[in-house]
Amino acid sequence: MNGPVGPYHHGSLAVQDRVGVRELADHVGRSIGPGIRPVAAAFLELQPMVVIGAADEDGRVWSSLLTGRPGFVRATGPASVSVAGGVPDGDPLAAALARGSTPVGTIALDPRTRRRMRLNGTARPTRRGLAIDAERVFSNCPKYLQKRDLYAPAPGSAPVAVRYGARMTPDQADLVRAADTFFIATLAPGHGADASHRGGNPGFVTVTSPTGLSWPDYPGNAMFLTLGNLETDARAGLLFLDWATGTTLQLTGTARTLFDGGDRTVRFTVDRVVEAEGASPLRWSPPAYSPANPGLPR
Known about the structure:
alpha+beta
């Protein structure tokens, strides 16, 4: 079957069939719709951060962090959202999101409550930031989400030091190795963009070289939206956060999935790196790890 069925395109369907979860995916997919329910709207207005994924003007896919006082993201209608401020100047997605209509994926993840929701659609610039017309809205379970408390924001607005590169530095590689959470943006031509979350115990992401890393694809909701997109388009963007200092590390490149029996591993090749020291004003506590996190191999 080549065309989309319900919320899924042929890439997701191919992975669902390969793993043998098509029936479960069909059931879970019924929760995906264009409407923003009141409970979802209320959740959005409580969030101090949201992650957005899209392609830049050169076609590279990035995952970017947006922050603001709660209420900076809010539903403005049954299928529309506003984001005050938009992406920061200098962000890899700033130019693309400042022009016309751009397919985007967003994820609002609240470590305080271990809740998350995803909203994919089309973004356009406004005088205040961004407007997003929602096409797919849905929530995910708290699996692999680490719980964190939010401290007071960092005082002042010190200039952000931004470093660009084509490979990870040793310090950047250490940040990746220590991560218990990251975000991944993908897209499928004709089917829009998506932003998702990956979590596990520190060390679940392996750095294989300054331009290579990998992670296990843990069992999830059976939708396979991320891996489905990668089946059709290898471009991807990763976002790692230093939750204590606000530093962000953005990687863009390509990813492929390796299937080995019932196990899946995603391998990512870095093309560009952007590190912004103290980019986020938010400061979070050390995590309480999700009880769903698998143990790491010895």
